[in-house]
Design brief:
Layout: H1 2-26, E1 31-36, E2 46-50, E3 59-67, E4 70-79, E5 96-101, E6 115-121, E7 126-133, E8 146-153, E9 159-165, E10 170-173, E11 176-177, E12 189-197, E13 210-222
Antiparallel strand pairs: 1-13, 2-5, 3-4, 4-13, 5-12, 6-9, 6-13, 7-8, 7-12, 8-10, 10-11
Amino acid sequence: MSKLRALWQASVNSTKKALAWNVEDWIPPTEKYIFSFNAKQEVKKWHLYSDSEYGGMSTASLEITETGNQLRGVFSGKLSLDVNENSRWNINRSGFCGMRSKKFDGFINLDLYDSIALRLKGDGRCYISTIYTENWVNSPGQEEDNSWQAFVLAPKDDWYIAKIPLDRYLPTWRGNIIDSEMEMNPSRIVSMSLSVNAAAGVPGARSGPGDFNLEIDWIKALRTQ
């Protein structure tokens, strides 16, 4: 009888260990790196855009620089409200710049996460975090990805971790909020971006034309629930 009981207990312990291992293997980590600006080649994952593509005169750059023996991304430039008189584009606003990641190889699946976190050192301006998902909101004939945006205030001269719940990202169409109840599909993310414009965005943020400078350490997905 004692041998049978010992065999039974050994079987129970083995089953518990197997179940514990399977559960831990299934639960994802509480955070997932999306971008880390700790190597020179990271800039190759991004491309820049600005109003200069449409006749504006704003400029932007993205560099990986070394500060205190650590590498950081620096998104900087100058916002201008001026428009090139010889432009063939009839633009009605200027003063914006952005950095957008090149499309992922397939999709980034953040379905098991609920927030985006960015470690930033800013200049007091308000920046815009954009998530691009596979096109299903826009008309099928349109090639543009769906965009979801949220404001990020970057305090001046201090490192700051901004945490944005995914449900705070609003659906937009060419910079304008879509007045409709829609939900992002976090399992079909194709790209991300950070941008800045001369408008303040949130109360208290620095605004207007002029220089901008944003240092970026990393961008992560978080599971806080």
